[in-house]
Q: What sequence folds into this?
């Protein structure tokens, strides 16, 4: 039985910084701790669910699955197509974990279907967890701060009014109910929810928290990964919202 660690976001909780840290420390994690980083295969192959071991020519994350899932939902693809996507995604993790290996995957934005309780995803996770130890890690912001950070990043571009847009975020931020759905749909998976709060993170830093509290590793410098993908300042976001579309 191998070990599979899945970092599933959620959005605006330091995922880019964690992915950068994983990318820069992939060799050390493999050599010293036996943890292999998996990431997207060549997107030109048209298989967004397939993972491969990290190398220096890749971004060190699995972003194609979230894009593939989003496209499938938007185009209302049949359930069987979505199930096949997730089956390949989680199945490839199990293939690389092997009998006693340890693999890690960081896939930003997967927190939404996890906490949303999408059975097509949870069924595939549960199938993997019957063969391996599976841990799914989610960092969550306090709801009011999560709404503001999402608004500053992309929400201000939405055609809905601010109050209408906030209502669209409601279900995604009901963490307790979402965790209940996830645990019910994939009971063999270990779900680890960490608060994205400087006062509660290990040494006040999400990268150190992920390394120390999730992976149990030490001695890897986080400075190269800090502060990546910051949100737009609120004043600028509001100015851009009022600006002409061409700008």
A:
């Amino acid at each position: 039985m191998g070990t599979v660690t899945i970092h599933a976001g959620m959005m605006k909780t330091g995922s880019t910084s964690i992915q950068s840290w994983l990318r820069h420390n992939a060799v050390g994690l493999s050599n010293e701790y036996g943890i292999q980083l998996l990431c997207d295969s060549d997107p030109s192959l048209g298989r967004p669910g397939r993972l491969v071991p990290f190398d220096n020519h890749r971004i060190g994350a699995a972003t194609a699955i979230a894009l593939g899932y989003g496209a499938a939902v938007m185009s209302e693809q049949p359930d069987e197509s979505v199930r096949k996507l997730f089956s390949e995604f989680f199945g490839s993790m199990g293939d690389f974990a092997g009998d006693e290996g340890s693999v890690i995957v960081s896939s930003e934005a997967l927190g939404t279907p996890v906490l949303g309780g999408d059975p097509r995803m949870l069924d595939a996770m549960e199938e993997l967890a019957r063969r391996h130890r599976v841990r799914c890690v989610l960092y969550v912001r306090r709801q009011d701060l999560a709404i503001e950070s999402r608004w500053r990043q992309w929400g201000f571009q939405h055609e809905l009014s601010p109050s209408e847009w906030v209502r669209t975020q409601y279900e995604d931020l009901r963490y307790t109910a979402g965790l209940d759905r996830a645990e019910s749909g994939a009971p063999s998976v270990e779900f680890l929810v960490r608060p994205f709060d400087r006062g509660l993170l290990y040494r006040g830093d999400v990268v150190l928290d992920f390394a120390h509290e999730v992976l149990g590793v030490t001695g890897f410098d986080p400075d190269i990964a800090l502060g990546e993908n910051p949100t737009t300042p609120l004043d600028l976001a509001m100015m851009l919202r009022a600006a002409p579309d061409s700008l």
Observations:
- The chain has a mean pLDDT of 89.
